[in-house]
Design brief:
InterPro entries: C2H2-ZF_Maturation_Protein, Znf_C2H2_jaz, Znf_C2H2_sf, Znf_C2H2_type
Protein name: C2H2-type domain-containing protein
Low-confidence stretches: none
Subcellular location: Cytoplasm; Nucleus
Number of strands: 2
Distance between the termini: 58 Å
Shape: globular
Helix content: 55-70%
Bound molecules: zinc ion
Number of helices: 7
Structural class: mainly alpha
Mean pLDDT: 81
Strand content: 5-15%
Pfam families: zf-C2H2_jaz
Main location: cytoplasm
Order of helices and strands: HHHEEHHHH
């Protein structure tokens, strides 16, 4: 009887890892191993053998994992991971603070296209 609000309960139950955590998982295997080790294998579906790194989800069978990788939620997650995180530098550039010299060339060309 901890949380009385039903909406909060379902939201937190479904909550997996945050995008920035998954990005760190993809970059370093050590980070990922740390996350996996924080759960006991016998508590996980399929004894924690079938794991989708991008979605931070465990599956009970290999077939389900393969099926999941072809699905829309997985592709949506992969796309979200490919997008750069919104940074303080970006926020300042939008306000006109900070110098544009520090932004990469690819971003500069984008800004020119938008203004013309
Ligand atoms: Zn996935």
């Amino acid at each position: 009887m901890g949380i009385r609000n039903k909406k909060t309960l379902t939201k937190t139950r479904r909550h997996t890892r945050d995008i920035d955590q998954i990005k760190a998982d993809l970059l370093s295997p050590k980070h990922l191993a740390q996350h996996k080790n924080s759960h006991a294998a016998e508590d996980l579906p399929g004894l924690g053998k079938h794991y989708c790194v991008e979605c931070a989800k465990w599956f009970d069978a290999e077939v389900n994992l393969i099926g999941h990788r072809k699905g829309k939620p997985h592709r949506r997650r992969v796309k979200a991971l490919s997008v750069e995180a919104y940074s303080q530098k970006e926020a300042e550039a939008a306000r006109g603070i900070g110098s544009l010299e520090t932004t990469p060339a690819s971003q500069q060309t984008k800004e020119v296209e938008m203004s013309s």
